[in-house]
Amino acid sequence: MQNVETLYNIPHIVNQGSDWYHRLSRTQDGGTKIYGISGRVANPGWWELPLGTTAREVLERYAGGMADGVRFRGLLPGGISTAFMTEEHVDLPLDFSSIPPEVGRLGTATMIVLDDHTCPVGFVLNLEKFFARESCGWCTPCREGLPWVAKILRSFEEGRATSEDLSLLKMHTKWLAPGHTFCGLAPGAMAPLQSALKYFHDDFERHISAGGCPWSKKSSQQRVLV
Ligand code: SF4
Fold it and tell me: What CATH number does residue 164 fall under?
């Protein structure tokens, strides 16, 4: 990939050799990575670190942990086309080989943190609205499916969702899976949704039983759900 991150490494690799560059990593994937973190953390930012640094190190050592008063629930490790990782995954080396496929993939290493004051359904709705807008319309599953997904998620937030909508969301993650569309936009859109349905399933159920978003029904001081 010829992005800025790749290009700025080239002079150093030419000057010091590929072995030197490879040894900068902690794992079999050579070199360094620019790890970023955003969300309600104490010190959001970017750091060039050895490839294979863990999410916990970036969050706790470099970003200073979570902001006051909020707790960690999960993170998207590499942009919005990657799957949520939760507490059980934060000690995995963040590189291209160490994250099991059933967990996800590194992506850009620009982490977005989900905290316990933020509704995971609303969080994913925001992402899916973006993907639906970005669809070029070439393939039917993406053109029709992404706006449908956004519409269903909105129904959860607005208190109109039923358990049938939960099944529909799960079906979309199969209809828009890799191999069903021409490019990776739609499968990328399904990564955060599919993992949210897995790790935050109770929150989707809670929207149905509460008749809307439990977060929006509480004051900002009361939004922590136990
Ligand atoms: S999957 Fe890619 S090519 Fe197909 S409609 Fe979506 S953006 Fe266009």
Answer: 1.20.1440.230
